[in-house]
Amino acid sequence: MKKTFITNLILVLALNLSIKPFWILGIDVKVQNLVGQAEFGTYAGILAWSYVFCIILDLGITNFNNRNISQNTHLLSKHFSRVVVLKLTLALLYVVICSIAGLAFGYDLRRMKLLVLLCFMQFLISFILYLRSNISGMHLFKTDSMLSSMDRIIGIAICAPILWAHFFIPKIDIMDYLYIQISAYSLTAIIAFIIVVRKAGFIKFEWTRTFSLMILKKSFPFAILVWLMSFYNRIDQAMLERMGHDGGVQAGVYVQAQRLLESTNMIAFLAAGLLLPIFARMLKLKDSVESLVQTSYSLLFGLAIVIACGCSFYAENIMHMLYPGDVTETAMVFRILMCCFMGTTTQYVFGTLLTANGNLKYLNIIAGCGMVFNIVVNLILIPHFHAVGAAMTSVMTQLLVPGLQVIVVQRIFKFKALTRIMLTLLVFLIGEIGIAYSSTHLPLDWRLSFVLMVAVSGIWALLSGVINVKSLLQTVKAG
Fold first, then answer.
1. Burial, 155: exposed, middle or buried (Cβ in 10 Å; 0-12, 13-18, 19+)?
2. Is the pLDDT assigned to residue 241 strictly greater than 50?
3. End-to-end CA distance of the chain
4. Which of 90, 207, 246, 408 has its CA 20 to 30 A from that of 44?
């Protein structure tokens, strides 16, 4: 299982790191610079609200299905057609509730149009994730890896000619950008649907009330967890857009700073997509997961430390490279937000383990604490510090939630090496801060200094024991 995780992690990262950074830095940034900070901030704020209600689209079905199919592959043909009908029913309910909420928030006609289109886009994303949960549940990780980047490949193919050659559209606006994303997700959903149907065999779509209630009952704890996590991860942008009186400028600043964080978070998210079915199958077979937890967490958290430290010390240089004009405030927000990556990585390893083990009660209590903490602190800090206050709140939340998850994991699994791993990573963090700080004082162009910092960080990871080359090589060669 370690070999499966490492080899497929390399594949999925190679695919996504070659595609998604270009989308985020080349397409998303370009669009924001063209349409303006306030316009993009408004779009981001409405997008954040659509995420808040996204739980209605899925109700935990995807995570439950991933775990269930990985442990009972034969259930795919039995469940698939009925779950698709259930997902479509939930999508209609989601659009209705979001529309009512939009009217209650005082959205004008243009904002309502944006909201409805974003609801449709969220449905496509949710449906793709459900389809992929069947594929990864069957341990078809290579196919799942291809699908994980397909929407961005299609989006780039459509967007690039428009942005740089001005084909089809002389000047792109936010609605055009949204239509392009919807087109890319639609094509990806069709391809993923065909793949799953071929694996499931003959399907007959039907609504079965008893089956739907059974699935919803089993997936409900997953639903609560996803909703709570989505809420405290997305509410910052929405609160900035609603509490601010600057036409969405502060929300735009936050989006600029958060963009790279979301890009790096994708690394941990993709790793969790591999870990959940692997953990689930290992736990069902009563195999020890300690070695896989140690390997995955050391690799991911070590990478998170390097990225967070590098981005924090080179914040202004990176923001100047991406955005025109004064980026002082954006750089400050970015510097703070990138520290969240270490907490997010911890959640995606230890939270995924608890999910695979069925410890949803603990996860929901922790996520509920995180949500309440996030909202209260945002209400205090946003009026005084605006985007910086929202970033500070995010960091504090990302310290609280994963910290509690690690404590629960240790109480349940009683890992022998967890303390040693944490101490090793702490030593690595202290050394990495010194490396990143020293590199900023080199008499070189900042890009070269950054590359040298990364190279030295790799050597430091080997010396500190964060990366055990011998163990990794043995794992990859095993089989």
1. buried
2. yes
3. 9
4. 90
Q: Which residue has the tokens 């005084």?
A: 384
The residues, any chain, with a CB within 8 Å of residue 157's CB and separated by 6 or more, are none
Structural domains counted in the chain = 1
| Average pLDDT over every residue of 108-134 | 89
**How many other C-beta atoms lie within 10 A of the C-beta of residue 313?**
23
The pLDDT score that the predictor gives to residue 478 is 46
CB 283 within 8 A of CB 154: no
Q: Quote the domain boundaries for residue 12.
A: 2-477
DSSP 204: -
Please give the structure tokens belonging to residue 348.
């995606």
pLDDT at 187: 94
Instruction: Spell out the residues 6+ positions from residue 290 whose beta carbon is closer than 8 angstroms to its own.
Output: 413, 415, 416, 417
- The contacts found for 244-249 with CB under 8 angstroms, 24 or more apart, are 244/386, 246/38, 247/38, 247/41, 247/42, 248/37, 248/38, 248/39, 248/40, 248/41, 248/42, 248/44, 248/45, 249/37, 249/38, 249/41
**Chain centroid offset of residue 139 CA:** 21
Helix (H, G, I), strand (E, B) or coil at 95: helix
| Token couple for 130 | 């459900």
H helices within 285-359, ranges in order? 290-313, 315-322, 328-337, 340-346, 352-356
Q: What does the pLDDT look like over 158-199, one tens digit per residue?
A: 888 888 777 767 677 888 889 999 999 999 999 999 888 887
Q: Quick check: 287 pLDDT over 80? A: yes
What are 394-428's pLDDT values in tens digits? 999 999 999 999 999 999 999 988 888 899 999 99
